[in-house]
Amino acid sequence: MRGGAAAAAAVLIVLGAGVSGCKKDAMGSAGPQETAGGGGGGAALSAVDSLTVKGRAPKTGYSRERFGTAWADTDSNRCDTRDDILKRDLKDVKFSDGKCKVSNGVLEPDPYGGKDVTFTRGRSLVDIDHLVALSDAWQKGAKYWDASKRIALANDPLNLAAVGASANRSKGDGDTATWLPPNKGYRCTYVAGQVAVKKKYGLWVTASEKAAMKKVLSGCSGQKLPSGGNPTDAPKRFTAN
Questions:
Q1: How far is residue 172's CA from residue 175's CA, in Å, rounded to a whole number?
Q2: Partners of 91 in the beta sheet?
Q3: Confidence of residue 208 (pLDDT cuts 50, 70, 90)
């Protein structure tokens, strides 16, 4: 009896873990997670073929200011976007000002590097990364948008993740063809996130980028396409240069 009960409990634990992973994968506002590899693709792989393929446009005219003031409170919850993502992605969060300004927490683990990273405000050990870098977006369609859409992209939780600064600083404005997280266990989730953002905002991909996305996602069993996040137009009170 004891052996049978233990086996049943083990099955329930495995099933519960699988259900939990799928649930978080479907939500664009959910925190980072690792996704096991394996053949089969999934919705994320299928979505790659819906992306327009074009060459990378010149970076001329790009600046961070074209996407508005950094970490604007576009969802009007009275907390800036950076603190929203820190609250979402860190564990053991502590605040210095009510329930907005995050002072401490732990990234368990850093999805890019795979190791735990402690966040202390004022120390640059944790970054908030744009999955689709703003410069990359600029060269693949965003330069032709109005300011409202660029501001929305820069502050959309679907496009943001708290990550370890050490691994993130090597990314620059790289796309899937030029940079992937060192933590191989997170690559399925990471690339699926980029596909979701580019599909949502109508950004194009280069031929090499599309090929790289398909190569990664073809090894991701049943990888879902994240969804959710904020509207693709920021409130009119926000402006950009």
A1: 9
A2: 106
A3: very high
Residue 124's pLDDT is 86
In angstroms, the CA 113 to CA 86 distance is 17
CA distance 27 to 229: 8
* Residue 196 identity (one-letter amino acid): A
Which one-letter DSSP state was computed for residue 53?
Answer: B
**Rounded distance between C-alpha atoms, residue 193 and residue 199, angstroms:** 10
**Residues forming beta bridges with residue 160, ordered by sequence position:** 130
pLDDT (tens digit per residue) in 133-155: 999 999 999 999 999 999 999 99
What type of residue sits at position 100?
C
| Pick from 205, 121, 120, 198: nearest CA to 158 | 198
For helices 207-217 and 187-201, angle between their N-to-C axes, nearest 10 degrees: 130
C-alpha angle 223-164-224 in degrees, rounded to nearest 5: 10
What residue has token string 């925190």? 31
- The β-bridge partners of 128 are 162
pLDDT digits (tens, 9 = 90+) for 98-123: 899 999 999 999 999 999 999 999 99
pTM of the model: 0.85
